[in-house]
Amino acid sequence: MNPAHIPVPILIVDDLPENLLSLEAVLRRDGLEFIKARSGTEALEILLRQEVALALLDVQMPEMDGFELAETMRGSERTRRIPIIFLTAGVTDRARRFRGYEAGAVDFLEKPIEADILRSKVAVFSELYLQRRQLAVQRDNLKAFAEENLRLLKESRENAQALKEADIRKDEFLATLAHELRNPLAPIRNGLQILRMAPEGPRAEEVRGMMDRQLTHMVRLIDDLLDVSRVSRGRIDLRKARMSLQSAVQSALETSRPLIEDNRHNLILDIPETPLWVEGDLTRLAQVVSNLLNNAAKYTPPGGEIRLTMREHDGQADIEVADNGLGIDPDMLPRVFELFTQADRHLDRSQGGLGIGLALVSKLVEMHGGTSRAVSEGAGKGSTFTISLPLSDTHGEFAGEGLQKKQTRDAAPLKVLIVDDNVDSAQTSLWMLDLMGHRGMVAHEGVRALEMAREQTPDVVLLDIGMPGMDGYEVCRQLRQMPEMKNKTVIAQTGWGQESDRQKAFAAGFDHHITKPVSLDLLTQLLADIRLTAAKAGDPQHG
């Protein structure tokens, strides 16, 4: 509230009620509040709980006269600065005036009081009171402003330091990214040169295997980078279902075992047979466990030991991955789940990686309502990473078992239309389909794809999205308007892999969305499932 709008409190002390009423009547005006006391004791009680701008004291009062009250007020820190005007009907000799001023009075008025003079003096002290209140408010505001400035200055310095560190980490990360992407590209290019010179040479099969491993490694780097970006911006949707945590661990072991075996590590598993049920995304939880196993494999010298333990306690399921590898420095331990930590000078860059695996672990586990923690006794003493997830109260089927992995050899091949403006991509997809035993055909632009769909009625359309002219979304929408294509399978095969891209594809009528480069295993399984589903439905085209 503005101090100018606060009523000015005036204390009037007189043992006669009629004097209190007459003084109030004389002084009454807007902006003044009168507090009346009939004795010195009552006045002191008032002053203990309320601030006043001015005290008008009668001198001649029983028990405690005005002088004694003034002296008591001057003896207290709370009331010693309150201006006092004495009012007296007695004889005001020089000695009495001196005593009054000595007691702290600023004035000494004799009764009968001249109203104009008293009003004038009260107005002066009221104005002084309001000025003091205004100064106090300004002082408090300045103090708060100074404190806020100090806080902002400290915060800005901390932010500047954080930005400086982030900039250094960004530069180191970009250097690491360039290094990590060049690593697989070099052997892939060398392998192509070898195959060009000797396509059927004695090392051809070994070279192809090496190229496949390096390409898989590069795709995994890019996928991890995209995943952590999506998670950080909240643009990833978990496909949660009731699942046993053992299924995620088994899937992770299939992914990470080659790296563990290449480094000749001894892998020890302690997994209970009784399923631990959680509400989770099987693919993402398998990714979490795989990242922990890969991290242990990379930072443990060859021939080391990696132990994966799963346990249940207090409504939680814990997965613990421990190793006897390089360990973690104490100053790094609180930051191991931060983005791009691998680029830090404290870690061995020769092990590779972008420093996003553990950050992705932390974020995905958090999205599942769980926690992540790391423990290490220091450099060279190994490390232990533990994730904790809430157990589900309801038991159910394993998630991820909906795809049927078996397929009959005598089932009719699928007729697949490949639509891609990239000639090389379309041609290699055609070769893959041929190796799988399916019949493929190619269109390089949308209009031609629609013509071929009308003429050939394919069972499956592998449709690129980012094509010039008519893009894949529009092609899919027009395919769905054809009666013969209404119930056929349309798969988006694209380099656009954000969650928003997936949702846009499904809204356009796509049945599946897979990102380039497409995994041969994934495409094989997907087409096998489509063929099996069609066969079960009694489609005459599928035997």
List keywords for this structure.
Rossmann fold; 48% helix; Heat Shock Protein 90; 3 domains; 14 helices; elongated; 543 residues; 5-stranded mixed beta sheet; 5-stranded parallel beta sheet; single chain; alpha/beta
User: How many DSSP-defined strands?
Assistant: 17
Share of residues in helices: 40-55%
CATH architecture of the largest domain: 2-Layer Sandwich
Count of spatially separate domains: 3
- The first-level CATH class of the largest domain is given as Alpha Beta
Give a quick account of the main beta sheet: strands, pairing sense, barrel closure: 5 strands, parallel
Strand order of the largest sheet: 2-1-3-4-5
Compute the average pLDDT. Answer: 82
Low-pLDDT residue spans: 343-352, 394-410
Pfam families: HATPase_c (PF02518), HisKA (PF00512), Response_reg (PF00072)
Domain Response regulatory: 9-126, 415-531
GO molecular function: phosphorelay sensor kinase activity
Domain Histidine kinase: 176-393
Q: Could you describe the 3D structure shown?
A:
The chain has 543 residues and is an alpha/beta fold. The chain has three domains: 3-113, Rossmann fold, CATH 3.40.50; 241-390, Histidine kinase-like ATPase, C-terminal domain (Heat Shock Protein 90, 2-Layer Sandwich); 415-542, Rossmann fold (3-Layer(aba) Sandwich). It contains 14 helices and 17 strands. Helix 10 (423-436) links the parallel strand 13 (415-419) and strand 14. The relative contact order is 0.06.
